[in-house]
Every structure is written in structure tokens, then in C-alpha cells.
Amino acid sequence: MSLLKNTMGPLQTSLISKPYSLKKTFIKTFNKGNGFCDFNFGFRDGSSTKGIALIDTDLEPPVRIMNYGDELFSRDYIRKSLKRAMEYREKLSNDKILDIGSNSAYRLVNDGSDGLSGLTVDVFADYLQITTYSEHWHAHVRYISEYLLNETGKKGIYWRNITKDQQTSKLYLGNGYELDENNQSTLVIEENGMKSFIDLLNPKSTGYYLEHRENRQIISDLFKGRKSGSILNLFSHTSSFSIAPCVNGHKIQTFNIDDSKKNLRIAKRNFELNGLDLNFHKFIKTDVFTHLEYLKSKSTRFDVVVVDPPSRTSSNSGVFTIKDSYRGLLISTVFQLLNPGGFIAAFTNTRSISESKWLREIGVKNESLDDENNNGNKKSIDYSLKNDMDEISQHIKRAQFSDTTKNRTPFVRLRKFKAVQYFDQSPDFHVRKGDDCIPQLKGVLLKNKIDYSKTKYFTKKKK
Fold first, then answer.
1. What is the distance between the alpha carbons of residues 188 and 186, in angstroms, rounded to a whole number?
2. Of all helices (H) and strands (E), which one includes residue 330?
3. Is residue 20 within 8 Å of residue 112, measured between CB atoms?
4. In which region does residue 116 sit, left (phi positive, over 0), alpha (psi from -120 to 50) or beta (all else)?
5. CB 79 within 8 A of CB 30
6. Which residue, among 330, 304, 309, has the nearest Cα to 244 in the 3D structure?
7. How do residues 300-321 score in pLDDT, each as one tens digit?
8. Nearest-angstrom CA–CA distance, 404 and 170
């Protein structure tokens, strides 16, 4: 590792907080094109910063810091990182936090949080799936696969490659699972009593979102002590949020709406796999936004509504984005489909907006940008500007800016709803504080505040 003398103030100030990503403008500072890079930056003040970076201009952000310290990128570094990742999941298992049993599914390696930026590894019962998001991992897939097969004793490894120009998934090493007479997967995993089919040959989706494990249990628990109930599952994917309460013994009716015929077909297979009668459940392939208007016109009401939309999608109603359209979706339609005292489980999973900004936009919680910087939700800080402002602030009183000046819309709190719980992704999806390279699950459970004066249970007191 060579010492790279640096006379550029911006790099040093950017590295003060040891961020996990850098902008494209810093690539030339590493004296290297795309690929893995060991760096040791020496600065004029005598300080230095060492580490390993992945540089890939096809990624955003293009410079990802894998690790700070003296380690160099090598097969030995890969092996140690994989070993640490496995030990962390074993600890979660020993602490009764994570199920890593023979039929379970969980994340074994979570990108840069396990020191391997651009790479994830998931466990699905007897099989592993390696996902590479950068072509620079391709030369190391064989070594990683052989090491993991030897250490875990699994039957086979599937390799999913997601790059700018290509999405593929195939059996890479070992033995694969069988397909049925309809060329469908027979691989089944279990989670809290719920069984699900997994497709490791589909590069777009396995049919299952691992990071929602704890959240599915929370939704299921909402029906404890109730004889019956109903769920409206929007953008339902393969309907795991609907199945979880049913397999836990709750007698509920579910409405599952998705625009993918394949997702709904898998959902029906999963319902049947768990011995659930399809006559109590509806599967509707349609534009979600259009069908919401239909349900509203019929005055249909539900006890729980699950909202987990894509970050951006086009519909008959126009373009939906998490940043600009989520609040409108809740207020204009979703709220009006809820029974008094019901719950809304709202989710998003995108890098485009921080959790605090999203909660502010939909009207749940208001945090200032200063608070956001302090709690780590704003990941990128211009430290050169910060240092200048700190010096200036010693001599002048800091100005107070309005929301308009800050280019923010005024905060408008949601009426008649209370945030009773904030959702998070499963602990095996741990993320380094300040790491904005990985999409992070965000969510909130909203409970309707009942106005009993407008219900049949309210009786006016006689004067």
C-alpha cells in the first residue's frame, strides 16, 4: 500500500468522519481506475487515513469504503470478513434473536456492513445465494462459494449477478433443488410457522423479503385476542404479510392487490402450502391505485392496511414516488378504507430519502436538519463547510432560516392517527451507522384515534 500525499483540503475534510462513500470527483485521488483499492492517504498535518475501497463507476455512490484500518484487500481479507459475518449471525442465534435452523432463511453477509461492499449472501434452508452488484466480485465468486460450502455444509450455491447491464441467476456450485412438473421451485423455507416457496433462479426476486421477518410477526400480533379481522395488503408481492397472521391461528380475511400475475400465483401457492382455504382470501391483479378508488366508492373497510409500494412506479393515475406521493396516497384513499381504531403499516425501502425526512413528509414526526445530522440520518456532511461555519459562528449569531428558505414544505401532522411503533429491518441486515450505500427498510405503524362521538357506541348524556 503506497502512501498517497494529499494537498487537497476537500478529501481530508471528507474523511474526518470516516464516511462509507465518496463522490465521483474523488476517484482520481485514488490513482486507480475501477476495482478494489488499498489506500493510505497522508496529509500535510501529519495525519493519515488507511483502508480498502471498491471503486465502480457503474454504482451509486461510485466509491465505497469497505473498511478502515491496516488490512489489505486479499483472499485472506475476504475469508476473515466471511468468518466474522458468520460469527455475528451465530451470536444472534445464541442470543435467541435469529433463527439459523436447517429450514430458516436469513442474511449471512450484508454488503459493506460486513466489510464486503457490493456483495450479499443469503441462506435459504439448504442453499445459499450469492448476489454480486459489481463485476469486480466476479473473479472471487469461486473462492467465496467453495469457502462457504465447506464452512456451512449447505447443498449448493446460486449466483445472482445484478449489474448495470445484466441481471442473471443460476446454480453455480454444488447441487440444486428440484423443480416440479410445472417448472416451479420446490424449495421451501419456514419462518415462525409460516412456509414459503423460494425461487433462486429468478434474478428479480426470490419471492420473499427476508428483511421483514420481525415486521410480519408484529402485523400478526395485531390480531391477538380477536375472533376475526381483515387485512388489505397493497403492493402485496407474494402476500407474506397476509399469510403470517393466518398460520398463527387468527381467523382473518385478506385482500391482496398487486399488478404482477406471477406474484399472485406464488401467493396462492404459499397459501395452499400452509393449508389455508383460498375461499377466505382474495387475489386481485390490477393497478393498485385504480382499485383503491373502487374500494373507496364501495365504502369497503379493513382492520389493517399494509402499504409497501415501490420507490417509483407509473399507474393509470400518474407517477408515484416515495418522496412526493406517499402522504397523498395515505390521506386520499388509504385512511378512508380503515375501520375505526384500525392500523396502517406503512413501509418504504429506498436510498433516495432518509427515514426522518420520510416521516416528516408523511406527517408523522418533525425533526430539524440539525437533529438529522446529529442522529446520523443525514449521511453526507460537507466538513470543509462545517469547519468554516464553526469558526464564523464564534463571531456572529447564527441566522434562523424558515422552511421556505431551506426549500422544505411546512410540516403538517397527520390528523386522527398516532404512530405506535416504528418498524425496522431484521438484525441480520445490520447497517453501519452512516452507511448510505445500502437501501434501508423504514416503516411506521399508525393507529386510528377513534372519535367515539361519531360511532354507534357513543350515547349522549342526558341533561
1. 6
2. helix 322-332
3. yes
4. beta
5. no
6. 304
7. 999 999 999 988 888 777 888 8
8. 51
